[in-house]
Write a structure and sequence with these properties.
- It is a single chain.
- The protein is mostly helical.
- Helix content is 70%, strand content 0%.
- It contains nine helices and no strands.
- It has helices at residues 2-13, 23-43, 46-59, 67-70, 82-94, 103-112, 117-130, 133-142, 153-184.
- Helix 6 (103-112) runs antiparallel to helix 7 (117-130).
Length: 186
């Protein structure tokens, strides 16, 4: 009801709501966002895919959730050059302390086969070593791992609990004082 009065007031003053977006444009934007979400899933970036799907739902709420957002991407693990992959992974295992030397080759290999869990695990190790939060989240979301809690979350919980106790204590004291004032007739 308040919205109706607000709308009437705004139109009487001279404001009007923006023109309705044509359905054709809405459908185009929604399909564009879905296409980008599919590209993100193919690239293994599931968190970005969720964001693009949410944007598509903003344009067209009746869009159903695609199956490829809930299921891990089943790209055949057929490697175009299996010897290159095998030799690269053996070299990494032999010299795991020099993982940063292999990062470029691992990224190229991951672009060829985004569902390769072993390559993604090595890239996750590299991101953890470099403390790259974006890389960590990207690879963990692709591996369907839970993200680690952020630093300081323990202290946030403790502070929130103490704040709650302090507020509850003050509310209790307020009710005690009100009760005493009523008892004394003030």
């Amino acid at each position: 009801m308040l919205i109706c009065f607000f709308n009437i007031f705004m139109t009487s003053v001279g404001f009007s709501l923006p023109e309705k977006i044509p359905q054709r444009k809405v459908h185009h934007e929604a399909s564009l966002m879905l296409r980008k979400a599919k590209e993100m899933v193919t690239a293994g970036n599931f968190s970005e895919a969720e964001i693009f799907f949410a944007k598509a739902r903003l344009y067209s709420p009746q869009i159903q959730r695609p199956y490829w957002l809930d299921q891990p991407l089943n790209i055949a693990p057929a490697n175009p050059i299996p010897d290159e992959r095998k030799s690269l992974l053996e070299a990494i295992k032999a010299a795991s302390q020099y993982l940063d030397l292999f990062k470029g080759k691992l990224e190229a290999l991951l672009k060829k086969t985004p569902s390769d869990r072993e390559v993604r695990n090595y890239l996750l190790q590299f991101a953890l070593k470099k403390k790259d939060a974006q890389g960590i989240n990207r690879h963990k979301s692709a591996l369907k791992m839970a993200p680690e809690p952020q630093e300081g979350s323990f202290w946030k919980i403790v502070f929130s609990f103490l704040l709650f106790v302090l507020i509850a204590w003050q509310v209790k004291n307020l009710f005690v004082e009100i009760k005493e004032l009523r008892k004394n007739g003030l």
